[in-house]
């Protein structure tokens, strides 16, 4: 399982979701995996044949442009890329944060933003971009952000974008998302005030050289394939076992 589809259905997405089908799948598989601890615990409540294993997301080898190098900018730029639907992207909070930090420029990349947004001048809604375009733009960012609405939907997420942010040599500030609490150069917060203070903290320095690269070297999709092959060859153990995200 890669998302809490029940929560997506509640916000008008994943209209195909059925709790009975979900339970049937979970209780009839030899092994069940989930990308985060909260999601694993939810699925484990169905009492599957084997306890749920946490196998998080990872970094694609095709994301980073050849020769990419972070270069920064004289202006303090904060960035995001991904889906922008109001179902889970917290536009109200981002707008308030931008107003509280008028000296920061927030560059927002993605699709499905609401049509009726009233944005302050320091939020630049840039539309969809290709990976090479994202690489070029993000090379000037100081901090990457994940401003999702807090709740059960976000609690279950292990966002692929955070692996990509780290590949871009960027620290991340996010609203609450338990799976990423201990990821390197990542701060998770509960409210707008904490978000602003976390931005202030991370714009002052760069990640220590090599830390993110070393972490990502153990969190590639090829590592997850090995995790799944290992799981397929195992007898069913007791308890939720984390096969990924080596520290």
CATH superfamily of the largest domain: Glycogen Phosphorylase B
In one word, what is the shape? globular
Which fold name is given in CATH as the topology of the largest domain?
A: Rossmann fold
| CATH class membership of the largest domain | Alpha Beta
| Alpha-carbon distance between the two ends | 22 Å
CATH architecture of the largest domain: 3-Layer(aba) Sandwich
* Number of domains as seen in the coordinates: 2
User: In which order are the strands of the major sheet placed?
Assistant: 5-4-3-6-7-8
Order of helices and strands: HHEHEEHEEHEHHEEHHHE
Please tell me how large the radius of gyration is.
19 Å
The main β sheet shows up as:
6 strands, parallel
* Main structural class: alpha/beta
Strand content: 5-15%
Low-confidence runs of at least 5 consecutive residues: none
Number of strands: 9
Question: Average pLDDT value?
Answer: 94
Protein model, in words:
The protein is of the alpha/beta class. It has 2 domains: 5-58 and 219-242, no CATH class; 77-208, Glycogen Phosphorylase B (Rossmann fold), CATH 3.40.50. The chain contains 10 helices and 9 strands. A 6-stranded parallel β-sheet has the order 5-4-3-6-7-8, sandwiched between helices. It has a 3-stranded parallel β-sheet with strand order 1-2-9. Helix 4 (91-100) links the parallel strand 3 (77-81) and strand 4. The radius of gyration is 19 Å and the shape is globular.
Summarize the structure.
The protein has 247 residues and is α/β, with parallel strands linked by helices. The chain is built from ten helices and nine strands.
């Amino acid at each position: 399982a890669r998302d809490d589809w029940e929560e997506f259905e509640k916000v008008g997405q994943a209209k195909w979701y059925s709790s009975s089908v979900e339970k049937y799948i979970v209780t009839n598989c030899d092994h069940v995996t989930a990308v985060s601890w909260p999601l694993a615990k939810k699925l484990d409540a169905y009492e599957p044949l084997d306890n749920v294993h946490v196998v998080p997301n990872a970094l694609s080898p095709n994301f980073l442009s050849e020769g990419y190098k972070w270069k920064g900018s004289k202006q303090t730029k904060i960035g995001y890329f991904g889906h922008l639907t109001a179902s889970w992207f917290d536009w109200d909070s981002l707008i308030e944060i931008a107003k509280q930090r008028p000296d920061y420029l927030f560059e927002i990349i993605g699709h499905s933003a609401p049509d009726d947004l009233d944005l302050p001048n320091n939020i630049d809604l840039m539309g969809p971009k290709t990976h090479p375009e994202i690489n070029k733009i993000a090379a000037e960012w100081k901090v990457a952000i994940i401003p999702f609405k807090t709740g059960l939907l976000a609690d279950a997420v292990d966002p692929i974008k955070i692996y990509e942010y780290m590949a871009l040599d960027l620290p991340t500030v996010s609203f609450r998302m338990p799976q990423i609490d201990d990821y390197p150069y990542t701060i998770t917060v509960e409210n707008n005030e904490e978000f602003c203070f976390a931005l202030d903290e991370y714009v002052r320095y760069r990640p220590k050289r090599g830390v993110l690269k070393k972490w990502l070297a153990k969190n590639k999709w090829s590592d997850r394939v090995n995790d799944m092959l290992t799981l397929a060859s195992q007898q069913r153990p007791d308890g939720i076992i984390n096969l990924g995200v080596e520290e």
